[in-house]
Amino acid sequence: MAAESSSTNQVRVMLWSPPRCLSTVFQKCMSYVDGIQIINEPYQSAGANNPEIMKQLTEGQGQESFNKFMATAEQQELIGNLQEVGWDDSVCTTAWVKNLLEGQFPGKKVVFAKDLMFGIRGQFHMIPKGYKHTFIIRNPTKMTISLRKNAEIMFPAPEGQQFSLRMLPPLFKECYQPLLQLIEYLKENKEQTGDPIIIDADDLQNHPASIVRQYCDAVGIPYNDSLLEWPAGNECVKKNWLVSKMMLQGDRIIGYYAAAFASTKFLPSKPLPPENEIPADVIEFAKFQEPFYKKLYDMRIKP
To answer: How many C-beta neighbours within 10 Å does residue 72 have?
Structure first.
């Protein structure tokens, strides 16, 4: 049954993000909203079952590296709070995700889904009905520095070569254009009216009370100051997350959720390192993304 008919009072929100933009720590914050259901990166999970998406994600020498990563991830044992959680990725297709998101969540006051854009590119017609779509962004240089650390593990350089972001498939360079395209799609198809709901990671870290309160007000989630602090650890996953088992297994290798799980609040953002200490490939990627980021930044919720 579609989302509109599941509950007239239930709030449904999608948060879209490029990689490494603090979306998971923000989602952990939202995990402590009373009566919430969290759905973590379902379209990203579905992308692994989409041949066209996988072709773009593993173009060139990335295919062999990604296959090795996936094989290693499948062998990871989930422990503690992560045991017996996670959906089977073999059933996760884009249509399955749309049905999941539009399904009923009885007893829940809020349904909050967070995702990256990789798994939904070219398939905007498959986004769920009945959701308010929101966005989180981050300074491109900060985002790319963090992305580089993870990508070097997932896509290691061939033996005897030094890793560079230039080795990655072109898809990884296009982090902000898809957000602008989705905003335009929502507008053209009258899926959402009014100004886009966008938050910036630096604003979130430096002015958490203001940004979280304004975000909650914009989407209809009840705000409370208690949302600004939470317990360290991953108990929230077992409590109210729906999440891909493979994503959790991959985290055991790369640790892309590690900082979010360890967090207890939003910490002030750190300044960028001097430019002469930033790798040339990071500067190149960040400069490419800067104009697209700036368009989104100008539309953001301000502290």
So the answer is: 13
